[in-house]
Every structure is written in C-alpha cells, then in structure tokens.
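pasting LacI family transcriptional regulator for the record, 352 residues
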Amino acid sequence: MSPTSPGPAHGAESTDLEIPTKAATIYDVAKAAGVSHQTVSRYLSGYAGIRPQTRERVEQALAFLDYRPNRSARTLRTGRSQRLVALTHQIDQFGPRKIVQGASVAARDLGYVLDILSLDLASTTAVESALESVQASECDGVLVLTATDEMSHALRHAHFDVPAVTADEADDGLAQKPTQLSTAGFPALVSHLDALGHRRIAHISGPAGWSASRNRVRGLQAALRAADLPEALILEGDWSAASAHRLTTRLLDTEAVTAIVAANDQMALGAILAVTQRGLRVPHDISVTGVDDIPEAAYICPPLTTLRIDFGRQGHDAVRRLMAVMRGAKEPILTSQHSQLIVRESTGAARE
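structre below
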C-alpha cells in the first residue's frame, strides 16, 4: 500500500493501490484496519466479542492485503491458533527433556506448534507470572509437564480459558488423571532382586514434593509387599548424583543393606561412587539399580541395571489426551505404562 493511499478501513477507493509483494503480517492488517494487532489476532482466533464495525474493518483489511497466516487454512476453518503451551521444569534433566521432545513431535504431527515455558519453581512469584502470561496468550490448550507441590499450589489459583491437562504423574491432574507411570516396572525390578536373594533394600527417592518421586516410592513398596519382602528404607534425595552420594555414605555407616534402588540413574551413579569409595564392590557387596535408562547407563562401571521409562511416549500421550479434551471428551484416555527392566552388571547375588 502506498503511503498516501488510504487503507480499506477508511472506505476510500483508489485505482493505484499497491498490492504488497511479500506476505502481510497481522501488524500490517492492524495498521490497515486502524486497530491493534491483538484485535486482529482475536478475530483470527474466532473471538466473538469484537464490535461489528471493528470486525468489518478487519475483514476488509484481510481481504485487501490477501492475508494468509502460516497455518491460515486450518486456523480460519477451525478458529484455533494451532498453538499449545507446555509448562515444564528442569528441562536439563533427562526425563523432563524427553517428555518435552515427545510432546513436541506429537503436536507437530497434529499440525500444532508447542511453545515451551520452563518454570522457576523455587520462586512463587515467577511461577505466578508465567501462568499469567499463559492466560494472556492465544493458545488452544495447555500441557503441564511437571507435577510438583509448588506447581499444584500455583495451579489452584490459575484459570485457563482453554483445556489443560497434566502429562506428568500428578496426584491430582488438571483436567485428566493419567496413568501413574512411575509405579510401572517395579514388580519386575523387585522380582529380579528377590531372585538374587535381596531382602534388605534401601531406596533413594527423589524430592518429596514431586509426584513422580512419591509414585516411585509407592510403586516400589507395593511391589515389595506383594513379593512378601520387607519394605525399603527410604532416604530422600533431590535427583542429583551428589545427593545420593551423601545419603549412601551415611547409609553405609548405619545400615547393612544388600541393595540400593535409586529413583533415577543420576542418583544411582552417586550411590555407586559412595559404595566404591568405602572399599566395597558393586554388585559383589551391594547391588545398585536406577530408573530412566539414560544413555550413559550402559557405559558406567559397572553398567547399570535400571528401569527404562518411555518418557517420549509419555509426552506423546499427553498431547493426545489434550486433543481429546479439546474435542470435548468426557472420559480420560488412560495410557499404557511404558517401562522395561534392563538388567546389566550392577546387580548380583546378595551377600550372606
């Protein structure tokens, strides 16, 4: 459009209007219509509260500029933005990172873009600010990929105008309650340890404020009870190798356990180091297992026995559940539990 030519919003006719040679943006449409870009975005999202005269100006500008958003055909047909927002935490950790990757692939396959928002759960103000930004954004749905007590507290005061589900193992999900994946696999792990003669078992858990950590404790203890074995001694870590190293060092001073079940592979690494620094051998003196099956698990000394969790599938299933809720599904879509016991060299027969 030439600088001196009035746009369609002003109702002027001109025979010398220049059709833009590059794709128009919502900012171009907003300028031509004499409205804010937020108003244009709301129109494209199907918002019904726009005044008729404003709506007409936006429509004229869209037609004049031949506006086509990147996902225009589907967006204009469905009234959706084709955007989802994922709330996550500690994305540098193996599990959360793989969940995000799985969710991103699933969203892409369904024609959506997944925006990732990593939260600082140590700051209530930061969490609340992030949630406010999500509430103000134009998205079709929200995925909560981290279930912690801090997150649950923040969500109790949040209101989303779009469907929201939790992909992680929440004790009480947002709109759905997914299968608690961290309870899966422990019967197989306990059966393996039982066959090796282990009865004095310690568990280094994740932080008590994480639903996944609590679920892993429940899963392990339930499997031990089902096998008629004593419940495990619980020591609370923080997912880090350093925390498990510290806890294992204390454990070896006071308890005579024959196996340590760490709640993730990072903590298993810390436990193995503490055992070897004490002059003991894994698995001759103490067996050590983990959960996750990180890529390094097969290459440490000794190679780690662990429960492989399909985090990517967990993220994929979460997107599918969200799509179901967006379609108006009333019942949750429960996923199968994706875990596999990987037996390597860090477990052996219990010492007498």
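The longest helix spans residues 94-109.
The chain has twelve helices and ten strands.
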